[in-house]
């Protein structure tokens, strides 16, 4: 991905450089590398290192840990889009006898399958994958820690099962499927299961002294779909653009939007922190901005990929230390620095090339009982229903091509809006999931359920 430093103002570039310099220094990282993407292009790349006269660039590989899970989720969504699996299917349908087969594919993707967070001892991240050659070695004798589907509990073995599902359905190794179906189409040439030069070495930094210890880089074997991959800021910048926009060669825009839709019940602490989880993507609400992406860590490495669809921006931060810099916060800050210093310039307003008079007739003010709403025609042919007060239920709805619309989000997601016309063709009211919306509050000329008092509106009687 081409990097154009000139696209950002000098003050913005300095603020970005200052942020990663503070992160590398205070986090005591041997090296830290970052990239910022705007409008689908890398616009800034920065690096800090403890080695004089050398700094990693956008082509140096780092291990990205659990960002690998997002790649695995993409493979599973591809199976769904091809009709080969259903997200509501229990795992048992495809991989019988695991002891975790009650969990559905969607629940495994969202970490609500009730599985343990880790595989049985010894610590899988620092030991060879050959110690866990079969799924039973990954899951142990008692795979479940919670009732299936009841709560979010992050599970590395859950994504091992999803990788095994991909292998079972495709009839090929997980990494081969990933390379063929995701890495090659998206041009991610420096993303791989094993390190390729140039790559960073992983280090543990002593918590109370400025000394380091090399970390082992194990092949994770069966656990690979949960955290095996190595990548670069350049490749992950491309991947972030894909996750925000979709690419029909891999997944449609609708499917990647589904990935970043909350799919797991949030714990009380998560609600307070403004965090959640979709299908292979972490979600966070930070500084008024909705962010999606994923973090990753393995001994010797920290990684984060974060993007904002609304700002059309992304940031990637990679470091080669076991702990230290808060890479998730750094990535969010990089997006915030650019978004606030150089706000996105909107496209010029343009009138629609054409409009259906029957649809235009529906726009304007409506009432559900006594609460006022506005129905707006959107540029894509859909409509948006919004409360006049700014507070209350709202939804965007897509056209079904037959004069009705289906809700895409909010309270009315999946519900159908249907204009009801009188015998003369004029609109009597809107029916939205059985709710009657009228042009006037409790319009006596419309079939309001329960009827309208014939004496009409009055003061104290």
Topology:
Layout: H1 10-27, E1 31-38, E2 41-49, E3 62-63, H2 67-81, H3 105-109, H4 135-139, H5 156-170, H6 174-186, E4 203-205, E5 212-214, H7 224-227, E6 230-231, H8 233-245, H9 253-259, H10 268-273, E7 275-277, E8 282-286, E9 289-298, E10 301-308, E11 313-319, H11 327-341, H12 357-360, E12 364-368, E13 371-377, E14 383-387, E15 395-399, E16 405-407, E17 416-421, E18 427-432, E19 435-438
Antiparallel strand pairs: 1-2, 1-11, 3-6, 4-5, 7-8, 8-9, 9-10, 10-11, 12-13, 12-19, 13-14, 14-15, 15-16, 16-17, 17-18, 18-19
Strand-residue fraction? 15-25%
Mean pLDDT: 94
- Radius of gyration in whole Å, from Cα? 26 Å
Number of helices: 12
Give me the side-by-side strand order of the main sheet: 12-13-14-15-16-17-18-19
The major β-sheet equals:
8 strands, antiparallel, barrel
Total number of beta strands:
19
């Amino acid at each position: 991905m081409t990097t154009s430093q000139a696209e950002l103002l000098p003050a913005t570039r300095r603020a970005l450089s200052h942020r990663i310099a503070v992160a590398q220094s205070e986090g005591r990282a041997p090296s830290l590398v970052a990239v910022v993407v705007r409008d689908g292009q890398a616009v800034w790349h920065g690096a800090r290192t403890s080695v004089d006269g050398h700094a990693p660039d956008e082509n140096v590989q780092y291990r990205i840990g659990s960002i690998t899970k997002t790649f695995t989720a993409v493979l599973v969504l591809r199976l769904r889009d091809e009709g080969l699996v259903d997200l509501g299917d229990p795992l048992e349908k495809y991989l019988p006898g695991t002891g975790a087969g009650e969990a559905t594919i969607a629940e495994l993707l969202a970490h609500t399958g009730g599985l343990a967070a880790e595989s049985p001892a010894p610590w899988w991240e620092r030991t060879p994958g050959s110690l866990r050659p079969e799924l039973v070695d990954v899951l142990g004798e008692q795979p479940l820690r919670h009732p299936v589907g009841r709560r979010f509990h992050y599970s590395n073995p859950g994504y091992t099962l999803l990788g095994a599902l991909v292998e079972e359905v495709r009839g090929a190794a997980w990494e081969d499927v990933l390379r063929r179906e995701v890495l090659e189409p998206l041009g991610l040439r420096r993303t791989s299961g094993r390190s390729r030069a140039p790559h960073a070495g992983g280090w543990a930094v002593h918590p109370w002294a400025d000394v380091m210890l090399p970390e082992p880089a194990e092949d994770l074997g069966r656990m690979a779909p949960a955290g095996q991959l190595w990548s670069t800021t350049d490749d992950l910048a491309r991947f972030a653009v894909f996750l925000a926009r979709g690419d029909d060669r891999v997944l449609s825009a609708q499917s990647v939007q589904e990935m970043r839709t909350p799919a797991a019940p949030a714990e009380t602490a998560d609600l307070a922190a403004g965090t959640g989880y979709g299908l292979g993507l972490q979600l966070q609400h930070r500084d008024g901005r909705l962010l999606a992406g994923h973090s990753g860590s393995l001994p010797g490495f920290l990684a984060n990929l974060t993007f904002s669809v609304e700002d059309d921006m992304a940031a990637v931060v990679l470091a080669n230390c076991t702990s230290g810099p808060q890479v998730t916060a750094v990535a969010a800050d990089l997006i915030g620095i650019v978004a606030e210093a150089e706000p996105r310039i909107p496209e010029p307003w343009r009138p629609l090339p054409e409009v259906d008079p029957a649809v235009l007739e529906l726009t304007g003010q409506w009432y559900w009982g006594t609460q006022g709403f506005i129905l707006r025609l959107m540029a894509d042919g859909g409509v948006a229903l919004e409360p006049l007060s700014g507070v209350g239920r709202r939804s965007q709805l897509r056209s079904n091509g037959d004069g009705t619309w289906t809700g895409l989000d909010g309270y009315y997601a999946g519900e159908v809006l249907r204009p009801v016309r009188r015998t003369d063709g004029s609109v009597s009211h809107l029916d939205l999931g059985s709710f009657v919306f009228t042009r006037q509050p409790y319009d006596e000329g419309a079939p309001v359920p329960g009827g309208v008092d014939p004496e009409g509106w009055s003061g104290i009687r």
